[in-house]
Amino acid sequence: MRAERADLVVVGAGTVGAWAAVFAAEAGLGRVVVLERGLAGDGASSRAAGIVRAQGGTPGAVALGAWSIDFYRSQAARYGTDSGFRELGYILLAVTADDERVGRERVAMQRALGLDVRWLGPAEAVEVAPTLARDGHRGGSYLATDGAISPPRNVRAYSLAMQASGVELRERTAFTGLRLDAAGRRVSGVETSAGPIATERVLLTGGPGLRDVGRLAGLRIPAGGARHTVAVTAPAPVFDVERAPMIFDVGAGMYWRLEEGGLLFGWSDPDEAPGEATTIDDAALARTRARLAALVPATAGLGLRRTWAATIDYTPDHQPILGPGLSASGGEAIAGLTVASAGGHGMMWGPAVARCGADLAITGRTDVTDVGDWGLDRFDAEGRSRLAPDPIALPFPPAAAP
Fold it and tell me: For residue 386, is it within any domain?
């Protein structure tokens, strides 16, 4: 079978893959094809909580978050559609003295990078977030310009943007393998369930399925997936407001924000076994509801409108993957192959990671932020990273699934 040709093939039509395809088309690549084994947005992109913050735990995370917020704000003017970004503000809560010490150090780092973030004492935190309990915490860091998007609206926005920019989306078309040149060092195409495509550039994304995508391409990618649970309470008058800050109980791995006149809250469990999410853990839900009620008393006794479990991706150090694909056999870079993963922060960092991925695929460099430490070469043979974990992340399992 003769292969058709493309200037870039992107694997995965989630937030990272889809926006990367749009950015690549805007950069002037003639033919950009996106492969999606299911439907665009079927995975984590449509099931996330949609929280977006510039309050990162590292300078790189700050850059990715700030770039993504700027992008969300610009969408309506650029594309005539948007992901529904709402500026709500965000408090990263401190519960222990150590939480406060680390949080204040983080604020100093962020302010040095230009963020207008400040520390709120317990009383100030309650002034900013009146439904927050007056005790049980030590305040936290606060940035008024953090916010949230609507995940379903984001899927619509990138779908329309792909269509408008001429990107060819191939739904229900699986990536099945990589084609290399005779020397085995350069991309020459991809194999798909619908036939081969010749190309000199391939960008691998895939969210929770990135490890399997890597195996098909002959790469070892230490990314995993685990259950993340989200619930929405019944409406209550105290939550039926235009704006109230989102809050992240960092130590417990639980967050909440306004949603449909109630409160959306979500959590992850570090003791969770890696793998695809299929059920709700009722015991964990009860524990989380009790902790939420202690910090937000107005939720005590409220019913739940809906609850869902989603498979969310993560990396062992909770940081993104951005860089060339490295062969599993010898660790050599494969020319023309780029890997891009937001490491469980698809809404928060997704657009910026997508832009970095598109830039790397086209030119080998990006000016969004320094991505030099985020390549696959930071992991050893067991998937351990040489980088310290991002300190502001949900507590996923310490290692990816084998």
Answer: no
Q: Give, as one character, the DSSP assignment of residue 310.
A: E
CA 311 remoteness from chain centre: 12
pTM (2 decimals)? 0.95
Instruction: Give burial (CB, 10 Å; 0-12/13-18/19+) of 333.
Output: middle
Do 277 and 238 sit in the same domain of this protein? yes
Tokens 């980088």 correspond to 387
14-72 pLDDT per residue, tens:
999 999 999 999 999 999 999 999 999 887 666 778 999 999 999 999 999 999 999 99
Strands in 175-180's sheet, in edge-to-edge order, are: 4-5, 197-198, 187-192, 175-180
Sorted by sequence, the CB contacts under 8 Å of residue 348 that are 6+ apart come out as 51, 52, 53, 64, 65, 68, 342
Instruction: Tell whether 300 and 202 lie within a shared domain.
Output: no
Residue 17: give its domain's CATH number: 3.50.50.60
**In terms of domains, do 200 and 161 share one?**
yes
* Structural contact between residues 139 and 125, judged by C-beta atoms closer than 8 angstroms: yes
- Angle formed at CA 53 by CA 36 and CA 318, multiple of 5 degrees: 60
Residue 33 in any domain: the answer is: yes
**Residue 137 belongs to what domain range?**
87-145+225-314
Q: What is the spatial distance between Cα 242 and Cα 79, in angstroms, rounded to a whole number?
A: 25
What are the CA-CA distances from residue 94 to residues 137, 140, 402 (Å)?
6, 5, 34
